[in-house]
Amino acid sequence: MGRRGYTLIELLVSLALLSILLGLAATPYLSRQQAHQMLVSTVIGLSNDLRAARFSAMEEGRAYRVEVFLDNYVVTAAAPGRWQLIKRVYWPEGIQRVGAITLDFSFPPSGLYGLGDLDNGSIYFKNRYGEYLGVVISVGGRIRINKPTTIVR
Question: Cα–Cα distance between 66 and 48 in angstroms, integer?
């Protein structure tokens, strides 16, 4: 009389096939989550560096500047006759900045930020899935993260 049921090998092969199928099904979701987290970390890093530049300007009594380009940003501090490089950060792969080619955010020793054009107080990014997130700087120098309700061009 033969026994009924599955052997251990058959059970392990079935579990392996099921794991592969689940992994293939979850890949698009995980890729989207990774792109979202990369966007969030890029925006948080830039907003933190803007805040640090503002507070350093007030603490040290010298101007700080953050120049934002299409693929990176640079933090500099006023030094006698020149700007001293503090930090340069490149955007991660898959993150794209939208808007003007170059933006310049200067913080005088007062820490107040003055805008000639109110549009220049915002920096927006998008990931490969079209999700947008940005940093907005008010005229008084308040820095906040903003998720736009309309698509930013």
Answer: 12
Domain boundaries, the chain: 34-146
| Contact yes or no for 54/141 (Cβ under 8 A) | yes
Residue 127 one-letter amino acid: N
Instruction: List, for residues 87-125, the tens digit of each pLDDT value.
Output: 999 999 999 999 878 888 888 888 776 544 444 578 999
Amino acid, res. 112? L
112, 141 contact by CB (below 8 A): yes
CATH architecture of 34-146: 3-Layer(bab) Sandwich (3.55)
CA separation for the pair 72, 94 (Å, rounded): 13
Which pair of tokens denotes residue 134? 């940005």
Nearest C-alpha neighbor of 105 from the set 135, 125, 80, 131: 135
In eight-state DSSP terms, residue 5 is S
pTM: 0.78
Determine the Cα–Cα distance for residues 148 and 133; give it in Å rounded to an integer.
7
β 82-90/72-79 pair status: antiparallel
**Tens digits of per-residue pLDDT, 3-45?**
777 888 988 999 999 998 888 887 888 889 999 999 999 999 9
